[in-house]
């Protein structure tokens, strides 16, 4: 199916996508270095967060003075770095991944060059559903300002539910890959379990009375939910 859903760093990105990104994405030299290292050397470089989505998320954090962030899906650390740059000195970014090998190998050598920002990042290794459940069990519900969901797609409904619980009123959730290159709009493509899970998450968010939301064609699709 024809589609102009794309991350701007993809070589053949649609000119309108490229134009929007050129007028949105702002990266520090460290972010540029991490992006280059990830796309050149890390396995599955296409998992890297789209810079336009990361900048958009930073604007939310900085606009409402967000301090505590949930970053679900670390990979090499691009989203964690973006949030750590946006929160104040006493801010905290919990970044979750089933396996932090790529973060340690490609991310840490670059991120650690800026110790002040690096110190705000708290890596949590293991299945993110379990790690989020642990935070809830620890009594941290309602204490986070911002969440970014960008890990295994079939767990998205669970991640969204747990993020709504962990966010304070007024907090914001960004759900990445909400359009899956446009595939969610094609019923045939929804036979794939990951696409079906994203489609289900979009329905859940749209119908959720606990949040206000908008599904945007930004990056690979960004569903924004504002907790009431
Ligand atoms: C798309 S990448 C994250 C990209 C990153 N947010 C960025 O901005 O570059 C998805 C990550 O989710 C992780 N992942 C997969 N299954 C997971 C699970 N069950 N729990 C936590 N992380 C998981 C993968 O190891 C991978 O690093």
What's the SSE blueprint?
Blueprint: H1 15-22, H2 29-41, H3 51-63, E1 68-72, H4 78-86, E2 92-97, H5 101-111, H6 115-118, E3 121-125, H7 128-137, E4 144-149, H8 156-166, E5 167-176, H9 193-207, E6 211-216, E7 222-227
Parallel strand pairs: 1-2, 1-4, 2-3, 4-5
Antiparallel strand pairs: 5-7, 6-7
Helix pairs in contact: 2-5, 3-4, 7-8
The structure holds S-adenosylmethionine (SAM).
S-adenosylmethionine binds next to helix 4 and strand 2.
Question: How would you explain this protein's 3D organization?
Answer:
This protein is an alpha/beta fold and 228 residues long. It has one domain: 3-Layer(aba) Sandwich (Rossmann fold), CATH 3.40.50.150. The chain contains nine helices and seven strands. It has a seven-stranded mixed beta sheet, with helices on both faces. β4 (144-149), α8 (156-166) and β5 form a beta-alpha-beta unit. It is globular and about 45 Å long. The structure holds S-adenosylmethionine. Residues 47-49, 73-75, 78-79, 96-99, 127-128, 150-152, 155 line the site of S-adenosylmethionine.
Strand count, sense and closure of the main sheet?
7 strands, mixed
CATH architecture descriptor text = 3-Layer(aba) Sandwich
How much helix is in the residues? 40-55%
What compounds sit in this structure?
Answer: S-adenosylmethionine
How far apart, in Å, are the first and last alpha carbons?
A: 36 Å
Residues in β-strands, percent: 15-25%
* DSSP strand count: 7
The SSE order reads HHHEHEHHEHEHEHEE
Q: Over all CA atoms, what is the radius of gyration?
A: 16 Å
**Total discrete domains:** 1
Which spans have pLDDT < 50 for at least 5 consecutive residues?
Answer: none
Rounded mean pLDDT is: 95
Estimated structural class: alpha/beta
Look at the structure and give the CATH class. Alpha Beta
- Note the overall shape: globular
What is the tally of helical segments? 9
Tell me the name of the CATH homologous superfamily: Vaccinia Virus protein VP39
Major sheet strand order: 3-2-1-4-5-7-6
Kindly identify the CATH topology. Answer: Rossmann fold
Family: Belongs to the class I-like SAM-binding methyltransferase superfamily. Cation-dependent O-methyltransferase family.
Protein name: O-methyltransferase
Keywords: Methyltransferase, S-adenosyl-L-methionine, Transferase
InterPro entries: Cation-dep_OMT (IPR050362), SAM-dependent_MTases_sf (IPR029063), SAM_O-MeTrfase (IPR002935)
